[in-house]
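wait is this the right file?? whatever heres the structure
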């Protein structure tokens, strides 16, 4: 009897099925059987499965007709399974390296449990940061094996079927199988929860789940949403007699799913009222004794559902959608209730130990605000940190970092109460600068192009900037402005005239260029998919104000072919764009969606850019930089610049694609002349970046240490940048 049976339904995912099967066969732990469930012999998926079975005797394909659906395929696999524990894997997902060994070790620790829940990663179909949605739920559970009554929030309703390992004897004893129809994971998870008596968790990633570009089919409009209530009723019937504390948690989570669908009428082209009425009947029939509805808007929805007040529910849903739409369009307190609450909060005392951070208008946990927040947790743990993010960036906030969604009630509350407000852009127009509060502008680059009021004489840029009076009003809120070199200090003073104090401490986000180790560089390269031993060239063009949409400005395939067979390109578009190209190829890796530009720079052996400020940051690594200036004159005239880059470049300048390929082909991009140019550039623009910028800031601003006691800047000649992966630094 094998330790594990891994069941892999394959309907509709033949193109990625081999990756799923290979991820299982590549596991270091080998005591398993792999059961691909295919449509029928001769289908594309069956051919893939048969090929793997011919190479490895542990692969045992079975067939299930497409008409049986996902539940039928999984049940077919269950009937064929002989292992002690059963796992499920979607055909376009993969097992993480070492996953089975980690499961075996955990089960050895806990002994036999009915269910072992584990973490999974959700990976975007484009280049982007994976998230771990199960991690917060599993973090709240006991350390060893436990009874479900000890962690009532762990019901299985919130987890997919492939986020756990199930003891096969337990499933057989309780005759558990996947319910027919749609939303089968919800029914399965609920039934398993009701039957389980001993469970445990593994707080590490086992499955890597690929989010499909078109999204989940379950979220599409259709009559299948009525089947959600079938699954809910099935679980509620099975849960009768469950202990009160368990039944209440299960009930609340089930109806959270129901209300999520009820509040989205576009998912139900017809029968929305019937859905609501049936849900209300289920609610009233199965509501546990002493059940207390949650607070806020969700609690109101619970009460309306319980009373069958469809018209009122519909009106509430419309009001909530209008309010959320307004908050997303303009992040300021426009609604009357929000204005009143914000006004009340502004009258409350400042919280001296509250710091609020934001980066790139809420795009995520990034840049210098993130570096400062991380350092504050080390040096000033008494400071409560809240990071502001847009709704679609919530999942990318690291574990342990508190956040608030922009436009939410919490967002305005912390903005009103915080003593410290740290941003690399600007806070919303409606934010009030309170007496005693400290606003910090970290900036997000060294200025080559004209900034702030210096843009006023460039019509294209000025039109996009908007009101310069409002811009200066935002500058008036700043108490500190961080600078990485004297050039920046002077240009910021021109571009953003105000009464703030310049902190010439270096950019906190650049600290990592001096603190990262060779192992961390290697890890990032693996995560980005850089092949071993290849020279990774980061291509990072800037935004053109006179262009619409992103254009690479360079034939990257042709560049790779001409530059040499060892060259791969990491493409990173300006942060205005979500993606640099439609898809990555073997030699071109689109890293635009990667959260951290610092990670991308660490992974690169050389940089090619036009006029992007990334060159100033990358120069801290003392690695080769090449300027591709095919339209310098046009850019200089339309955007405006503070100095002539052609007179003081950080490395060779190429004007044509042929010249660019040549400097890589003949090695001059990393030659003596390139090294000399880079040394001059670093002396001018890497003046204060030495790996201690975040510490200097936290000690001065958060801890109140006098300027003369903060760590001094390490001389450039004494700094040791993070090592490159494939090049020896001069």
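ok assuming it is, sequence goes like this
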């Amino acid at each position: 009897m094998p330790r594990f049976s891994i069941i892999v339904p394959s309907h509709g995912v033949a193109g990625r099925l081999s990756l799923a099967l290979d991820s299982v066969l590549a596991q270091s732990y080998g005591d398993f059987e792999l059961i691909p469930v295919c449509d029928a012999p001769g289908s594309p998926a069956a051919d893939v499965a048969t090929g793997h079975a011919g190479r490895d005797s542990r692969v045992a394909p079975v067939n299930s007709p497409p008409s049986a659906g996902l539940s039928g395929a999984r049940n077919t696999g269950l009937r064929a399974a002989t292992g002690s524990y059963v796992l499920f894997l979607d055909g376009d997902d993969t097992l993480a390296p070492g996953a089975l060994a980690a499961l075996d070790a955990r089960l050895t620790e806990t002994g036999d449990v009915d269910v072992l829940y584990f973490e999974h990663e959700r990976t975007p179909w484009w280049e982007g940061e994976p998230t771990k949605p199960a991690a917060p739920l599993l973090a709240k559970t006991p350390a060893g094996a436990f009874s479900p009554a000890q962690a009532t929030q762990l019901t299985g309703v919130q987890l997919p079927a492939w986020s756990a390992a199930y003891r096969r004897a337990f499933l057989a004893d309780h005759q558990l199988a996947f319910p027919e129809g749609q939303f089968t994971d919800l029914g399965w998870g609920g039934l398993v929860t009701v039957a389980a008596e001993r469970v445990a968790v593994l707080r590490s990633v086992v499955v890597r789940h690929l989010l499909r570009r078109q999204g989940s089919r379950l979220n599409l409009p259709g009559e299948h949403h009525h089947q959600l209530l079938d699954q809910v009723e099935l679980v509620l019937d099975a849960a009768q007699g469950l202990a009160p504390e368990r039944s209440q948690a299960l009930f609340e989570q089930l109806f959270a799913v129901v209300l999520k669908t009820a509040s989205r009428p576009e998912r139900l082209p017809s029968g929305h009222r019937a859905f609501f009425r049936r849900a209300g009947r289920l609610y009233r029939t199965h509501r546990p004794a002493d059940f207390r509805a949650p607070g806020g808007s969700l609690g109101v929805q619970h009460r309306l559902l319980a009373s069958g007040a469809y018209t009122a529910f519909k009106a509430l849903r419309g009001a909530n959608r209008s309010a959320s739409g307004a908050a997303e369009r303009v992040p300021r307190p426009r609604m009357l209730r929000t204005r009143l609450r914000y006004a009340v909060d502004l009258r409350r005392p400042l919280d001296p130990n509250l710091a609020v951070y934001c980066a790139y208008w809420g795009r995520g946990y990034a840049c210098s605000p993130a570096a400062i927040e991380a350092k504050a947790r080390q040096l000033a743990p008494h400071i409560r940190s809240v990071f502001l993010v847009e709704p679609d960036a919530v999942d990318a906030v690291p574990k342990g970092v508190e956040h608030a969604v922009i436009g939410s009630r919490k967002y305005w509350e912390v903005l009103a109460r915080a003593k410290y407000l740290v941003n690399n852009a600007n806070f919303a127009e409606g934010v009030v600068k309170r007496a005693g509060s400290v606003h910090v502008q970290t900036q997000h680059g060294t200025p080559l192009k004209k900034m702030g009021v210096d843009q006023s004489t460039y019509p294209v840029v000025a039109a996009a900037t908007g009101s310069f009076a409002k811009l200066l009003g935002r500058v008036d809120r700043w108490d500190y402005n961080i600078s990485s070199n004297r050039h920046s200090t002077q240009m910021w003073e021109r571009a953003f005239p105000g009464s703030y104090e310049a902190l010439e401490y270096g950019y906190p986000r650049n600290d990592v260029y001096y603190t990262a180790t060779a192992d961390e560089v290697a890890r990032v390269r693996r995560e980005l998919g850089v092949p071993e031993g290849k020279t990774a060239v980061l291509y990072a063009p800037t935004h053109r104000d006179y262009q619409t949409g992103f254009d690479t400005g360079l034939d990257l395939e042709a560049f790779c072919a001409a530059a040499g067979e060892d060259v791969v390109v990491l493409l990173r578009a300006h942060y205005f764009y979500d993606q640099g190209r439609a898809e990555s190829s073997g030699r071109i890796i689109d890293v635009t969606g990667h959260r951290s530009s610092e990670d991308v720079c660490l992974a690169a052996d050389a940089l090619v850019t036009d006029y992007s400020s990334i060159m100033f940051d990358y120069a801290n690594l003392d690695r080769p930089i090449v300027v591709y200036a095919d339209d310098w004159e046009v850019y200089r005239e339309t955007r405006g610049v503070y100095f002539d880059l052609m007179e003081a470049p950080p490395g060779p300048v190429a004007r044509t694609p042929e010249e660019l390929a040549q400097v890589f082909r003949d090695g001059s991009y990393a030659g003596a002349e390139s090294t000399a140019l880079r040394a001059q550039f670093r002396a001018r623009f890497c003046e204060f970046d030495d790996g201690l910028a975040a510490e200097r800031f936290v000690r001065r601003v958060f801890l109140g240490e006098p300027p003369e006691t903060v760590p001094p800047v390490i001389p450039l000649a004494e700094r040791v940048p993070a090592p490159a992966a494939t090049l020896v630094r001069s």
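The longest strand covers residues 199-210. so i think its the right one actually
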